[in-house]
Amino acid sequence: MSPSWQACIPLACLIVLGWGYAAVAQAPAPAAAGPTTAELKVALDTLWVAIAAFLVFFMNAGFGMLETGFCRQKNAVNVLAKNLIVFALATIAFWAIGFGLMFGDGNDFIGLSGFFLQGADNSPATGDAYKGVFSALSWAGVPLAAKFLFQLVFAGTAATIVSGAVAERIKFVDFLIFSLLLVGISYAITGHWIWGGGWLADMGFWDFAGSTVVHSVGGWAALMGAAFLGPRLGKYQDGQIVAIPGHNMSIATLGCLILWLGWFGFNPGSVMAADPNAITHIALTTNMAGAVGGIAATVTAWLYLGKPDLSMIINGILAGLVAVTAPCAYITIGSAFIIGLIAGVIVVFSVTFFDKIKIDDPVGATSVHLVCGIWGTLAVGLFAVGPGVYSWYGDGLGPAKGLFVGGGLGQFITQFIGVISVGGMTVLLSTIFWLVLKATLGIRVSRQEEIEGLDIGEHGMEAYSGFLKEAGSGGFAEPGSPKGMSQSGDLPTSL
What we know:
Organism: Chlorogloeopsis fritschii PCC 6912
Distance between the termini: 113 Å
CATH architecture: Orthogonal Bundle
Number of domains: 1
Membrane topology: Multi-pass membrane protein
CATH superfamily: Ammonium transporter AmtB like domains
Main location: membrane
Shape: globular
Helix content: 55-70%
CATH class: Mainly Alpha
CATH topology: Ammonium transporter fold
Order of helices and strands: HHHHHHHEEHHHHHHHHH
Strand content: under 5%
Strand order of the largest sheet: 1-2
Largest sheet: 2 strands, antiparallel
Transmembrane segments: 46-63, 84-103, 148-168, 175-196, 208-229, 241-266, 278-305, 312-332, 338-355, 367-393, 413-437
Radius of gyration: 28 Å
Structural class: mainly alpha
Keywords: Ammonia transport, Membrane, Transmembrane, Transmembrane helix, Transport
Number of strands: 2
């Protein structure tokens, strides 16, 4: 080889050695140990609980749209304001006192610890490993913050139910005070009996996601509020029931769809774990009951009232969803079909029944949440498949087999006792709250304010600025119609 090629040999060796050294120098350090399976499970469970809580929180938008659409335009701001502020109030009341009364360690009647989220807690530890003051929630393997957030949105839902039933004539300040008392005291006490390890839980009462804990409690409180307030002006004239139609069925329908979506957080989220079998099964039973409830209400209204009333379709869907909330984890999809079917039928007759006894509920909240909440709670005792069939509520746990699936009356009787007990306590406390408010502040606006509309009287503004000024105090008048008469001619627009 020529001298130049000979000189390249050691140079090539140096290059190869340099590459080898660079490769060794750049070798990555040993990777740190990754998260354990248990840590990943806690993370996934927490993510699912948080997403479910966000869905339930969004139900506030659904309630706001639904109630506003079902009420008259002169009260739209008032209804929207109540639905917006009620969750803010619920947050404070539940954080300060409600969560402790409901889930804090105490006795079979009431929780006595954990106020302001204070006290020992080593969540997400579960079972015997849990050390803290919220033993009733020791089955949920998520941080305490996730437990509180999920239960908070439930408490807010109970308070929101009242808003629609007392709409168009209640003083704004009274509603605010009542919401604080309901969430902080009444809802928390009865909730402790069932979900807080209280005496009803010890009896074997089961309510998976809250047909009684949330919906019936809100329904009972709403019923008492509507009764103490009395009907709206013009609702009952000369012994006749006068229809007062809502002003915007478009946003009422949107509200129904938002609520339907929110229920996929409400019921499947109550598993408090990212269990794929549980979440999907509960979502299917929930959806089936809501769908069949809407169909059943449509047919019933068509036959009973002569027309497929949109408001009845909306309330039929919600009736089915409310009814399946208690049994959704314990039943088959076929049973959910039957539960939703019956709920859709009874909600139509319930609305007309409350009208006949002069309980004026502008949105049908008592029929949907109270009546169908009771039906759904009792349905656990009729359709539950029994312990050991589904794994997600614990090995050997769950309600006894229902009457219609080969069981006896035992579970049904327990459910009935729970319905009566929670109803009695809620009626008692709600009555005290309403009577005290009535005696001190007065709960109903003046006649003139009700005629003018609560938007102006309570808030000094209009939802649809200019519309009422152009069309009169209560709505649009057709050319040639008597002044102050609505398009339908049913009601004076000033009402």
